[in-house]
Amino acid sequence: MTETAEERREAAVEAALGKLDLDAKTRLLAGQDMWSLPALPEAGLASLVMSDGPIGVRGVHWSADDPSVALPSPTALAATWDPGLAHRAGVLLAQEARRKGVHVLLAPTVNLHRSPLGGRHFEAYSEDPYLTGRIGAAYVRGVQSGGVGTTVKHFVANDAETDRLTVNNVVSERALRELYLAPFEAIVANAHPWGIMTAYNSVNGPTMTEHHHLVEEVLRGTWGFDGVNVSDWTAARSTTGALTGGLDIAMPGPGTVYGENLARAVRDGEADEALVDAAVRRVLRLAARVGALEGAEPVVTAPPPDADGAALAREIARRSFVLVRNEGGALPLRPGRIALIGAAARDARVLGGGSATVFPARTVSPLDGLTAALPDGTLTYTLGADPNTELPVADAGFELRAVCRDAAGTVLGTRSAPSGHIQWTGADLPDGVTHENLHSVELTGTFTPRESGTHTFGIKGLGPFRLTVAGTVHYDDVQRPDGDDPFLTFFGPPVPHARVGLTAGEPVEVSLAYTVPPPDGRPMRVIGFTLAHQDPQRAPEELIAEAAEAARAADTAVVVVATTERVESEGFDRTDLRLPGHQDDLVRAVAAANPRTVVIVNSGSPVELPWRDEVAAVLLSWFPGQEGGAALADVLTGAHEPGGRLPTTWGSLADAPVTRVVPENGELPYEEGVFIGYRAWEKHGRTPAYPFGHGLGYTDWGYESVEVAVTPHATTATVRLRNTGDRPGREVVQLYLAPVEADPTRPARWLAGFAGVEAGPGETVEATAELPRRAFEIWDEATGSWSFVKGSYEIQIGRSIADRRITATINV
Ligand code: BGC
C-alpha cells in the first residue's frame, strides 16, 4: 500500500524527534518570546509563530506598522448563522497569517455567553453550543484550508473574566458535556483542529493547564484530538502538573515552567521523559502540518486564491447586522434629509479590546459610509452624547510616533503609534531597541483638533512622565499607584493633567515622554502607557438639545449608540448592561423630536435599550470591523438587507436568569446547570427584549410545510417556505427540538438545526437541515455516558425561538 501524506508526515516527525536531545526537546515546549517557539535547525525545524485572533491576524507586533484586515466581531460572525461565511472568514485569515509569517492563529474563541455580564462576549459566538460549534467548525476548516493552524480556545469554561486567572468554576458534568464542552467536541469531530488553548481558570478543582481528566481522557482519549495543547498566556504554573495534565506548550517565554525547568525535572526523576516525547511529537506534527518541518509535506501545498479582505469584511458586516425592530417600514431609508447623531457615528468602535485587538489600515465610520452613499447635502451630523465617562485614548486627530532613546538621549529606534496607547511586551520593541539600551520612550507628533475649546490631556501608566502640549510642559512628575493594586493603573481611569484651549483645524505639537524604570527581575518586560485626550466638554443637555433640533429638521434621524472599551473588553466583566453616558436620554429626546428615529447599536454583546418601543427601528451592528460604516450604508439605503439573527438573547439585567460572574472564596458555581441563555429565559418564564434567533430583514416569509424523514442514522427536515415580501431576501430557517412530554431536567426546546435560504419575491424555496443524533441525547451522570432519550418530539420550525411557524411531531 502507498503511504498517505499523513503517514509521511508522521515519519518525518519521528525522524525529527530522534535528532533532539532532552534540552532541545524541553526548549521546544516553551515560548522563546511572546509569540514563537525556538527553531531547532538540527531537526530541520523552523520557529513556529503564533498570533491572535480571532477577527484578524495581528502578527508579532502591537503596532500599526504592519496593518491587518479587521473583520467583524465573533458575535457578528455568529449572527450571520452562515457557516459558509465563517469558512470564508477563515480562508481570509489564513491568507493574512501567511502574509505575516504566522503559522498558528490563536482562535476561535468558543466559550459560551453564560451570563450577559461576561465582558469578553464580543469575542465568543453565542449562548448556544450548537450554533457555536457550527460557526467554529467552519471557521477552523477555513483557516486550516489555508495551511494555517488554529487553537480553539479557551478550553474550557472561561465564560467570564472576573478573577479569570484563579477562579475555580464548579460545573456539573452534565452542563459541561451538554453546554461548555459541546462546541469543542463538535469542532474536534467536524474540523480536526490542529491545536487547542487551555484556559486560565480551574474546572471542578484542577486548573485547565493541568486538567488530566478533561485534556487526556476526554479531549484526547474519547474525542481523539491529535493536535497540540498550548497554554493561555502565562496560564501554565507547574512543571510536572502541566506535563501530566497534557499541556504541550507553555506560552509565552522566556521564563516558563517548561524549558530548562522541565529538563531539570526529568533529570531529577520528577517528570517522565516519555511524556515530554509525546508533547514534542505533537509540536512537531503541528510544524509538519503547517510546513515548518523540513522533509514533511505540509497539509496544504496550494493555498486558496487570495481574497479581498475589505470586501469580505463589508459583506460579513452587513450579513451580521440584526434588524430587531422596524415599525412602519422605517428602514430602508426613504430619500430625504438624514440627521446622523452620536459619537460612535463619527468614531466607530469597530472591534473589541484586549488580545483580539488588530490595527486595520483604515476604518470606515457610519459618518464616512453614509457621506459616501447619500446625495450631497442630505446628511447632517451632530454629536448628541459622549459615551466616554472618562478620558479616552488619544486617537482621532492625533498623528503620533514613538521615539526610543538611550540614557544619553540618542535615538535608538522609532515606531508608528496607532493611538496614544503603547503596549510592547517582551521582545516586541522597535528595531534597534532592547530592554537593556532603552531609557525613554517619547510619544510625539501633532494633534489637530476637530473642535475649538478646552481640550483635556491625561496619562495612564506608572512612572516618570513629562507631558507637553503646544510647547508648554503641563506635567513633569512621577505617576504612582493609587492604592495597593498596580493593575488599577492599567484598568483604572487615566489621570487628567492638562487643560488647553485649542482651535479647530489648527495643529499643535504634543509629546508624552516616559522614562523606563530599571528592570524589576520579572522575566516578561512590558512597556505600557497611554496618552489620553478628551474633546471640549459641553453640558449634556445642550448636546442633546442640539441633536433633537437636528432630528426635528430631518426626515429621518439615525442615532448610533455604543459601548466603550471601558465597558466591554478583555480582563473584566460588566456590572450592568446600560449604555454609558447620556445615550439613553439622547435617544429619548431624538425619538420625541422625530417619530422616524432609527437607532444603531454599536456593541459586541447585549445592552439594555429601555426606549426600544419609542423608536421606529433598532439595528444591532455589533463591533462591525473595519468596513462597518460602508456596510451600514449598504443596509440603511436598502442596497442590501441586514441579514443577521440574534446568536444570543437580548434582555434587561433585571430579567436575565444567569447573572453571577463574581466568584466567592475563589469559586464560581454554575448553579443554573444546563439552563443558560434562552434555555434559562424559557425555564423562568421571562420574556426578553428580543429572543434568540430573532432578526427581520427587509422581506417577509411564509412557512408552508415541513417533511421529516427519520431513519436509524439521521433525522432530516425539509421545510418549504415562500418569500411573501416584495424584494429578494435570505432567511435563516431555525429548527428547535421540544420533547412532547415536558421534562424539568431538560430545556423546553433547544436549537437542533438551521439552514439559510435565498428567494426572490413570491418564490418558494426548500431548506433542508439534518438534526444531529446528539440533539436527542443527554449526558447521564450516573453512567458517565451519553444517553439517547427515546420518545415523542416536536420539531418546531420558525424565525426565532419565540416565532415558531410550523411543527412536525416525530417518535424516536
Ligand atoms: C488571552 C488569549 C490570547 C492570549 C495571547 C490571553 O490573555 O486570553 O485569548 O490568545 O492572551 O494574546
UniProtKB/TrEMBL annotation:
Taxonomy, superkingdom: Bacteria
Residue span(s) of domain PA14: 374-548
Chain coiled-coil ranges: none
GO molecular function: hydrolase activity
The entry's keywords: Hydrolase
Transmembrane segments: none
SUPFAM superfamilies the UniProt entry points to: (Trans)glycosidases, Anthrax protective antigen, Beta-D-glucan exohydrolase, C-terminal domain
Keyword Hydrolase: yes
Alphabetized Pfam families for the sequence: Fn3-like (PF14310), Glyco_hydro_3 (PF00933), Glyco_hydro_3_C (PF01915), PA14 (PF07691)
Stated family: Belongs to the glycosyl hydrolase 3 family.
Protein's name according to its UniProt entry: Glycoside hydrolase family 3 C-terminal domain-containing protein
